[in-house]
């Protein structure tokens, strides 16, 4: 389907206003032409008519709402991740303390025998 696009001097309040990608002429067309292809009256190029500004505004509201919801989910996830990292750090400190104690006990056992214990294990 092809409609004749009207130039911007004939613009009506609900018209879709867009530019011809070929000659950059400002074009205005009935919103019912959204999604169709029209012929630019200036250069004759077949031009795809974008969605109306009104529809775009509605979509933007939905997009912003969806992004806010995702941001909130990421913030919750971040808090949970921080709590888990804190728990892991506490577990690591307990493990390190156990390793240190084990090495100290081994040194006590081995030193009378003149045997060197292995170098201190390091828990990262
Ligand atoms: Zn054009």
Textual characterization of the structure:
The chain is α+β, with helices and mostly antiparallel strands and 124 residues long. The chain has two domains: 1-54, no CATH class; 55-116. 47% of the residues lie in helices and 15% in strands. It has one helix spanning 53-110, and strands spanning 2-4, 6-7, 16-19, 26-29, 37-39, 46-48. It has a three-stranded mixed β-sheet, with no helix packed on it. A three-stranded antiparallel β-sheet has the order 2-4-3, with no helix packed on it. It is rod-shaped and about 100 Å long. The mean pLDDT is 82.
Short description:
The protein is α+β, with helices and mostly antiparallel strands and 124 residues long. The protein has one helix at residues 53-110, and strands at residues 2-4, 6-7, 16-19, 26-29, 37-39, 46-48. The structure holds zinc ion (ZN).
Keywords:
single chain; alpha+beta; 3-stranded antiparallel sheet; 47% helix; rod-shaped; binds zinc ion
Euclidean distance between termini CA atoms: 67 Å
H/E topology pattern: EEEEEEH
User: What is the helix tally?
Assistant: 1
Q: How does the helix and strand content classify structurally?
A: alpha+beta
Walk across the major sheet and give the strand order.
Answer: 1-5-6
Largest sheet: 3 strands, mixed
Average pLDDT confidence is 82
The structural domain count equals 2
Our Rg estimate from Cα atoms comes to 35 Å
Shape: rod-shaped
Q: What are the distinct ligands in this entry?
A: zinc ion
Q: What is the number of strand segments?
A: 6
- Unreliably modeled segments: none
As a percent range, the share of helical residues equals: 40-55%
How big a fraction of the residues is strand? 15-25%
